[in-house]
Design a protein that fits this description.
It contains 15 helices and 30 strands. The protein is globular and about 65 Å long. 50% of the residues are buried. It has a four-stranded mixed beta sheet. It has a four-stranded mixed beta sheet with strand order 2-17-19-18. The chain folds into two domains: 2-18 and 236-492, Enolpyruvate transferase domain (UDP-n-acetylglucosamine1-carboxyvinyl-transferase, Chain), CATH 3.65.10.10; 22-232, UDP-n-acetylglucosamine1-carboxyvinyl-transferase, Chain (Alpha-beta prism), CATH 3.65.10. It has 494 residues and is an alpha+beta fold. It catalyses: phosphoenolpyruvate + UDP-N-acetyl-alpha-D-glucosamine = UDP-N-acetyl-3-O-(1-carboxyvinyl)-alpha-D-glucosamine + phosphate. UDP-N-acetyl-alpha-D-glucosamine binds at residues 94, 123-127, 314, 336. Keywords: Cell cycle, Cell division, Cell shape, Cell wall biogenesis/degradation, Cytoplasm, Peptidoglycan synthesis, Pyruvate, Transferase.
C-alpha cells in the first residue's frame, strides 16, 4: 500500500492538463454493453475505478482493450452473457450499478450486486429500481443482489427526484435502458450534470434518440438497436476544481488546460468571492483553459454544495481545506451528502479549527496548518488532505492514497510538475520523514504540540452568537469575531 510524503509551503506554478472525466467515463463504459458494435472511447483516464469497471465488463463477456500509445479504450460488447455482476467487483465502486439498465435493456435480464464505493453517506438505489419498474422490469432483491427481468422494456413517465436532489447514476441507468425501450420515455427531475450530457451524446452517436439531456426533463424515443461509435470523453471538471483550489491554497499561478468554464461556473464564482483570480485562457497550441492565481489576502465565504449547476459535493472537502486558511469565519454546507465530513478530523490533526453543525462545517481561520500523519477516508477527502499538506508548514504523510487513485490520474505526478515536493512511497515505518518520528531520544514533536496548544484558543467555546442567514434562507448561529490588529488571525469577542 502506498503513501504520499508532502513538504508544504511551495506555491504551485505552471501548466497542467486535465484527464477525461471519471464520472462520464464510467456510465459510458457501462452503457457500451447495450451497444451492438464496438465503442472506441478517447480520453478515458487511467484510474483504479476504470480498471474495476473493466473487470466488471469482462466478467459479463465484453472484451476491453486499451491502446497504450493513444490511450484509446475499445469495448467489444458480449455476444452472450450470464448477466451477473458479482459482489466482489461491484462492492469496490458504486458506479458499477450502472450496468443494471444496459444489461436489462439488451439482454432482458440482470443480476447485479448492491453497490459499494466511498463511505460518504446513505446512497440507496431505490430511484434506479423505481425507474426500471416503470419501464416494465420485474425486480426483486435477494441476498444482496438485484434480480431484474423484462421481455421488452416500454416507455413511461418517470420522476427521479429524491430527498437530496436528482440521482446522477440513476439518470444514467434509466436513460440508457430507455434508449432500447419501445415507445417514448420522459424523465422528470433528471440530473443535469455535464457527465449526463456526455452520456446522452455518446448514446445519440450510437443511434439513440435523446433530447433534453442537460435539463431536468429528458425525452427518449426508444430504438431497436444501438450501433458502434467513436466518442471522446469530456475533461474532468472535478479534477479542474481540485487543481484550482490547490493553486489558491498555495498562492500559486497555474494554467489548467482543457478546463471548461461552463462546467465550473459555481466553482469559479465562489473562488472569486474568496479572492482568487480566475481568467479564461489558452495555450500556444490553441487549447482553452483557466488561469488561476492565488492571493495573499483571502475572504471568508458561505458555500453550499448542491446538485449541478451548484457547487459540486465532490469539491466540498477541497473547499473546506482552503477555507481553513482564510481569515474569519466561513461556513460550508453539503445538501447533497449531509454527512460527507470525514475529512474534518484529519484536518483538525493538522491544526484546523472546524466545528460540525448538522450538514454544515463552521471554520475559523486562518489556521496555522502543520505537517503531520493523516489518513484518507474517501476519494475527495484524500484530495482535500493533499491540498492541506501542500499549504502546511513542514512535512505531511497521507496514508490510504488508493482512495486518491480511484479518481485522479497521476495526481502526484501532475502536482510535482507544478513544483510541489511530493513523493509516493510504500507505506512502511522506515519511510516516515524524520520530522514525524516520535523517538525516546527526541521530543521535538512533543514540543511542537505543546507550542500549538499554548496558543490555541477554542474559537467556538462560550461565545456570544448572532444569526447568520445563508443564501437559501436557512439561519445558523455564528460566533461574533473581529479582526485582530496583527496578521495572526481573528480575535473572538468574549
Amino acid at each position: 500500500m502506498d503513501m504520499l510524503i508532502i513538504r508544504g509551503g511551495i506555491p504551485l506554478a505552471g501548466n497542467v492538463r486535465l484527464a477525461g472525466a471519471k464520472n462520464a467515463s464510467l456510465p459510458i463504459m457501462a452503457a457500451s454493453i447495450a451497444v451492438s458494435g464496438l465503442s472506441q472511447l478517447r480520453r478515458v483516464p487511467h484510474l483504479a475505478d476504470v480498471s474495476t469497471l473493466t473487470q466488471v465488463l469482462e466478467s459479463l463477456g465484453a472484451v476491453v482493450t486499451r491502446d497504450l500509445s493513444t490511450g484509446e479504450l475499445t469495448i467489444t460488447p458480449p455476444h452472450a452473457t450470464t448477466g451477473i455482476a458479482d459482489y466482489d467487483l461491484v462492492r469496490r465502486m458504486r458506479a458499477s450499478v450502472c450496468v443494471l439498465g444496459p444489461l436489462l435493456a439488451r439482454w432482458g435480464k440482470a443480476v447485479v450486486s448492491l453497490p459499494g464505493g466511498c463511505n460518504i453517506g446513505h446512497r440507496p438505489i431505490d430511484l434506479h429500481l423505481k425507474g426500471l419498474v416503470a419501464l416494465g422490469a420485474r425486480i426483486r432483491i435477494e441476498r444482496g443482489y438485484v434480480h431484474a427481468e423484462a421481455t421488452r422494456l416500454h416507455g413511461a413517465e418517470i420522476y427521479l427526484g429524491g430527498p437530496f436532489g436528482s440521482t446522477v447514476t440513476g439518470t444514467a441507468n434509466i436513460m440508457t435502458a430507455a434508449s432500447l425501450a419501445r415507445g417514448i420515455t420522459r424523465i422528470s427531475a433528471a440530473a443535469c450534470e455535464p457527465e449526463i450530457v456526455d452520456l446522452g451524446n455518446y448514446l445519440n452517436a450510437a443511434g439513440a434518440r435523446i433530447t433534453g439531456h442537460g435539463t431536468p426533463v429528458i425525452e427518449i424515443e426508444g430504438v431497436d438497436e444501438l450501433h458502434g461509435v467513436e466518442h471522446e470523453v469530456i475533461p474532468d471538471r472535478i479534477e479542474a476544481g481540485t487543481m484550482m483550489i490547490a493553486a489558491a491554497a498555495t498562492c500559486g499561478d497555474v494554467l489548467i488546460e482543457d478546463a471548461q468554464p461552463r462546467h465550473l461556473s459555481a466553482v469559479i464564482d465562489i473562488l472569486r468571492q474568496i479572492g482568487v483570480t480566475i481568467e479564461p485562457s489558452s495555450t500556444n497550441d490553441g487549447r482553452t483553459g483557466l488561469h488561476v492565481s492565488g492571493a495573499a489576502h483571502l475572504n471568508p465565504a458561505d458555500c453550499t454544495a448542491l446538485p449541478y449547476p451548484g457547487v459540486p459535493t465532490d469539491l466540498q472537502a477541497q473547499l473546506t481545506a482552503l477555507l481553513c486558511l482564510v481569515p474569519g469565519i466561513s461556513v460550508i454546507t453539503d445538501k447533497v451528502f449531509p454527512d460527507r465530513f470525514m475529512h474534518v478530523p484529519e484536518l483538525l490533526r493538522m491544526g484546523a479549527q472546524i466545528r460540525r453543525e448538522g450538514a454544515s462545517a463552521i471554520i475559523a481561520g486562518p489556521a496555522h496548518l502543520s505537517g503531520t500523519n493523516v489518513m484518507a477516508s474517501d476519494l475527495r477527502a484524500s484530495a482535500a488532505l493533499v491540498i492541506a499538506a501542500l499549504a502546511a508548514e513542514g512535512e505531511s504523510v497521507i496514508r490510504r492514497v488508493y482512495h486518491l487513485d480511484r479518481g485522479y490520474e497521476k495526481h502526484d505526478e501532475k502536482l510535482r510538475q507544478l513544483g510541489a515536493q511530493i513523493q509516493r512511497t510504500t507505506d512502511h515505518p522506515e519511510a516516515l520523514p524524520e520530522s514525524l518520528r516520535m523517538t525516546g531520544e527526541s521530543t521535538m514533536e512533543q514540543h511542537k504540540i505543546e507550542e500549538i496548544s499554548s496558543r490555541f484558543t477554542p474559537p467556538f467555546q462560550n461565545q456570544p452568537t448572532k444569526p447568520h442567514f445563508l443564501s437559501d434562507g436557512y439561519s445558523i448561529a455564528r460566533p461574533m469575531v473581529s479582526q485582530s490588529d496583527d496578521s495572526s488571525g481573528p480575535v473572538v469577542d468574549l
